[in-house]
């Protein structure tokens, strides 16, 4: 039998009467199109959420970054603002969708699906966090531990302004819950790959393709040789994938191309593979000695290994989920997230604690409404009972 808690657990069915109002909140922030680097829109989302949270009187810290927007940290209750420990909730408010995507994927409810750009990744999670805090403080207004909620402005572009802040709060917290969405089948993420991009540039020599073909140095042809080499850096048995994903070169079909650029996606599971790829990429040499090659980039977001601390946190969360009324599953995924920065510190962190859905980064993006209820109840129960 599982643990019996003195304070009753929230159940998804208990939350149903308030669902309509919460979906209106989700509609409110999804209507603010906030792609990365759109500082004013990102700040508008943060200010909207701040207005929702003001009745709970948190300590609010703003970290403004010109060109990026605003990172915000809310602490509940206020008297715990400078206390270490507690639970750190991590959300981001930027999306990958350019302004105008609302016209292609308008906000709407179809059956049990809430459609809209950024709804699944991860504005539903922002509403989930607010709702869970509301539920918690209504039931237990005096907390012996702090809860910090961070809104990150630049997760979709590898968190350049927010990484240090995430590491600071993650290092000091007893538990970090990253509210990235659950997998489409509802699992949380206890392991993630590190993610990076290498950029290769070949400089050749332009020439008329008909009259002076022999004097030209074809940069695209040289890059074709490098593509074959780079693809062979993949090591499936090590969980490492390397993919030539974007290639640009040449100026006209009747000109021997003098330049070519290739962007390469890399995914890794451990630090040794990061080091190997670093060596392999920087050891690349041109086949045609008349051309030149430069290599830039690398792994920008570290892997999130399934550490003993993460495994232990998952087992406890699974017990809380069981008493919330459902079976919690775990998954290893290839995408990166801010949770990796905390995992690298050896601290317990669980990712994918947000609602389920599908279509992240596409025009079919939606949040599953029953999962929204389920995950909000789970989060509220975790905040209420983690220290029991």
What is the topological layout?
Blueprint: H1 12-15, H2 19-30, H3 39-53, E1 59-65, E2 69-76, E3 87-92, E4 108-110, E5 113-115, H4 119-139, E6 147-152, H5 163-172, E7 175-178, E8 188-192, E9 194-203, E10 207-208, H6 219-231, E11 241-249, E12 255-256, E13 259-268, H7 271-282, E14 292-301, H8 308-324, E15 330-333, H9 339-343, E16 349-350, E17 357-358, E18 366-368, H10 369-385
Parallel strand pairs: 3-6, 3-7, 7-16, 8-15
Antiparallel strand pairs: 1-2, 2-6, 4-5, 5-18, 9-13, 9-14, 10-12, 11-13, 17-18
Helix pairs in contact: 2-4, 4-10, 8-10
CATH class annotation of the largest domain: Alpha Beta
Rg from alpha-carbon coordinates: 24 Å
The secondary-structure element order is HHHEEEEEHEHEEEEHEEEHEHEHEEEH
CATH-defined architecture of the largest domain:
3-Layer(aba) Sandwich
How many β strands by DSSP? Answer: 18
Uncertain parts? none
The CATH topology label of the largest domain is: Aminopeptidase
Q: Strand fraction band?
A: 15-25%
Largest sheet: 6 strands, mixed
- Between the first and last Cα atoms, what is the distance in angstroms? 16 Å
Helix content: 25-40%
SS-derived structural category? alpha+beta
Please report the number of helical segments: 10
Mean pLDDT: 95
- What is the CATH superfamily classification of the largest domain? Zn peptidases
Query: How many domain units?
Result: 2
In order across it, which strands form the biggest sheet? Answer: 1-2-6-3-7-16
Structure commentary:
- This protein is α+β, with helices and mostly antiparallel strands.
- It has 2 domains: 12-192 and 304-385, Zn peptidases (Aminopeptidase); 194-301, Alpha-Beta Plaits (2-Layer Sandwich), CATH 3.30.70.
- The chain is built from 10 helices and 18 strands.
- The protein has helices at 12-15, 19-30, 39-53, 119-139, 163-172, 219-231, 271-282, 308-324, 339-343, 369-385, and strands at 59-65, 69-76, 87-92, 108-110, 113-115, 147-152, 175-178, 188-192, 194-203, 207-208, 241-249, 255-256, 259-268, 292-301, 330-333, 349-350, 357-358, 366-368.
- The strands form 5 sheets. The protein has a 6-stranded mixed sheet with strand order 1-2-6-3-7-16, with helices on both faces.
- The longest helix has 21 residues, at 119-139.
- The chain is elongated, with a radius of gyration of 24 Å.
- The mean pLDDT is 95.
């Amino acid at each position: 039998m599982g643990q019996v808690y003195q304070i009753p657990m929230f159940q998804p069915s208990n939350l149903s009467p308030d669902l309509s109002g919460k979906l209106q909140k989700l509609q409110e922030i999804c209507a603010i199109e906030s792609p990365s680097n759109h500082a004013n829109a990102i700040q508008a989302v943060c200010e909207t959420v701040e207005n929702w949270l003001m009745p709970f009187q948190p300590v609010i810290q703003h970290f403004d970054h010109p060109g990026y927007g605003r990172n915000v940290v809310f602490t509940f209750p206020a008297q715990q603002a400078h206390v270490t420990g507690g639970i750190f909730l991590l959300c981001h408010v930027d999306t990958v969708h350019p302004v105008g995507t609302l016209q292609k994927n308008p906000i709407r409810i179809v059956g049990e699906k809430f459609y809209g750009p950024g709804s699944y990744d991860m504005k539903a999670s922002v509403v989930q966090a607010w709702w869970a805090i509301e539920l918690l403080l209504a039931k237990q207004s005096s907390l012996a531990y702090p809860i910090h909620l961070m809104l990150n402005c630049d997760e979709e572009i590898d968190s350049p302004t927010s990484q240090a802040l995430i590491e600071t709060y993650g290092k000091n917290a007893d538990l970090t819950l990253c509210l990235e969405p659950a997998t489409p089948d509802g699992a949380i993420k206890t392991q993630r790959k590190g993610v990076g991009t290498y950029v290769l540039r070949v400089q050749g020599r332009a020439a008329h393709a008909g009259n002076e073909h022999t004097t030209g140095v074809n940069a695209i042809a040289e890059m074709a040789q490098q593509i074959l080499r780079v693809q062979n850096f993949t090591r499936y048995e090590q969980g490492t994938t390397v993919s030539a994903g974007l290639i640009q070169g040449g100026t006209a079909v009747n000109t021997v191309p003098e330049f070519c650029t290739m962007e390469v996606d890399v995914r890794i599971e451990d630090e040794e593979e990061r080091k190997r790829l670093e060596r392999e990429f920087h050891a690349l040499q041109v086949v045609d000695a008349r051309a030149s090659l430069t290599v830039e980039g690398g792994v920008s977001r570290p892997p999130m290994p399934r550490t003993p601390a993460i495994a232990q946190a998952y087992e406890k969360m699974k017990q809380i989920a069981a008493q919330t009324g459902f079976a919690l599953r775990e998954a290893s995924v290839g995408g990166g997230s801010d949770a990796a920065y905390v995992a690298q510190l050896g601290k317990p962190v669980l990712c994918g604690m947000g609602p389920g859905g599908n279509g992240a980064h596409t025009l079919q993006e939606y949040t599953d409404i029953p999962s929204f209820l389920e995950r909000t109840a789970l989060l509220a129960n975790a905040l209420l009972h983690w220290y029991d």
